[in-house]
Amino acid sequence: MNEWLSMGGYGSYVWSSYAIFVVVLLIDYVAPRLRGRRMLIELRGRLKREQKRQEKSA
Amino acid sequence: MNTLILWFHKIGSPPTFHRIATRLTPWLYACALLSGLVALYGGLVLAPPDYQQSDAYRIIFVHVPCAWMGLFAYFFMAVNAFIALVWRIKISGILAMASAPVGAAFTAITLATGSIWGKPMWGTWWTWDARLTSELVLLFLYLGVIGLYNAIEDRVQATRAAAFLALIGIVNVPIVHFSVSWWNTLHQGSTVRLLGPSRIDSSMLWPLLLMAFATHVWFFASVLVRSRISLVELESGKDWARKVALGSEARQ
Q1: If both were cysteines, with which of A14, A33, B111, B247 could A7 make a disulfide (CB 3.0 to 4.6 Å apart)?
Q2: What's the rounded Cα separation, in Å, for the pair B104 and B122?
Q3: According to the model, what pLDDT value does residue B130 have?
Q4: Angle, CA B71 vertex, CA B73 and CA B170 arms, to 5°
Q5: Residue A7: how many CB atoms within 10 A of its CB?
Q6: Residue of chain A nearest B125, judged by CA positions
Q7: pTM higher than 0.80 for the full model?
Q8: Left (φ > 0), alpha (ψ -120 to 50) or beta: where does B188 sit?
Q9: What is the domain extent for residue A41?
Q10: pLDDT recorded at residue B252
Q11: Are B133 and B114 in contact (CB under 8 A)?
Q12: Using H for helix, E for strand and C for coil, what is the string for A1-44?
């Protein structure tokens, strides 16, 4: 196990590469979801405001 | 109209596209994750160490698939940008803009992991050779497209301007690809070849190809998620988008 982790002495290089790969893809996974949630909250707020305005004028 | 064109128009209509994308993305993510994990196991555990580079070469199992993705994503973006500019198809513009951040992410991974590999193997983090420089230009092109798209308030105009930039930048794609054969670079030539035998043992080749498959599937999953959001945002005045917005409230 330890031998595997040390990667023939190149452990820090190999593992940091894989860490960057995983972290960047995680960001790629999370970022659009955060944007989507923000967009939906804004859109719902706008739709509700429009509805209220219509009820008032009716 | 023949059936193919009809089908094309149906897929291209925003509500249908949104529905298909919503249904497809969990499967794509599952597929990418599963094949990616198997590829990681193959690359980190099963593949033997290289006779010259020992275990440091294992970086290629993420570096090379990501490099391919950086070029593939750019090509995909440019084709969609072209369709968006010429035929004004809404979905194409959205797909083009959605692929820019994913392509940028893969290109950034390529540059970072390449640099980390270069330090022990070449003795330097960075050198201004043709491959590295053109890859850096690729990242800047992505960032330029993203920046231009976000700098313009009007979404339709922003898409048009950024699509134009994406289209001009496509000249860099063959430069990146052929840089190792056109110039004498520190970066090695291609090892895996579409035509002719690859110069790599099969025990190292299959994790590489499987990871390439996983990153491609991931790319499409990520692009679909981003497109879905942009589509609802763009069509927020329409009935179907309102239903989507209010419907997902009920589910949460």
Answers
A1: A14
A2: 25
A3: 87
A4: 90
A5: 19
A6: A13
A7: yes
A8: beta
A9: 2-57
A10: 42
A11: no
A12: CHHHHHHHHCHHHHHHHHHHHHHHHHHHHHHHHHHHHHHHHHHH
Q: What is the pLDDT of residues B228-247, one digit of tens each?
A: 999 999 988 888 888 888 87
Burial of A31 (0-12, 13-18, 19+ CB in 10 A): middle
Kindly give, in sequence order, each residue whose CB lies less than 8 Å from that of residue A33, ignoring residues fewer than 6 positions away: B225
Do the Cβ atoms of B61 and B205 come closer than 8 Å? no
Contact B225 A32 (CB under 8 A): yes
Contact B193, B128 (CB under 8 A): no
Which tens digits make up the pLDDT trace of B182-221? 887 788 877 777 666 677 778 888 999 999 999 999 999 9
- Please give the Cα distance from B95 to A57 (Å, whole number): 40
Q: How many residues does chain B have?
A: 252
Query: Please, which residues bridge with residue B107 across strands?
Result: none
Identify from B46, B62, B146 which residue to disrupt to test chain A contact, counting A C-beta atoms within 10 A and taking the largest count.
B62
Do the Cβ atoms of A28 and B62 come within 8 Å? no
The complex scores an ipTM of 0.89
**Do the Cβ atoms of B114 and B63 come closer than 8 Å?**
yes
Region class of B244: left (phi > 0), else alpha (psi between -120 and 50), else beta: alpha
Q: How many structural domains does chain A have?
A: 1
Contact B135, B187 (CB under 8 A): no
Query: Which residues of A are less than 8 Å from B101 in CB distance?
Result: 28, 31
Rg of chain A's alpha carbons, rounded to an integer?
A: 24
Q: Under a CB-based contact definition with an 8 Å cutoff, are residues B124 and B118 in contact?
A: yes
Task: Report the amino acid identity of residue B220.
Answer: F
Secondary structure string (H, E, C) spanning B210-248: HHHHHHHHHHHHHHHHHHHHHHHHHCCCCHHHHHHHHHH
